[in-house]
Fold this protein.
Amino acid sequence: SHFLAENGTPAEKLEAKAAVTLVPGTGITASKLTVVGKVPGIDAAKFTELAEKAKAGCPVSKALGAIQVSLDASLA
């Protein structure tokens, strides 16, 4: 939401989910982030760009740096 507001296109609604892959005996091997936003005045490409920027700077994503973290961002 920070980068959207900074862009001059604050979100009306953001829904974010994380699904992790757990391999018994190995642990968590991947995390898939999904974010769906209702953001007036922005196109899908810019929304995805800002979501990727947020993922790259996210402290949780950084902490999970040893596993694959993917992102699926879309507008509602």
Remarks:
- DSSP finds three helices and three strands in the chain.
- The two ends are 15 Å apart (CA to CA).
- The longest helix spans residues 44-57.
- The first strand starts at residue 13 and ends at 23.
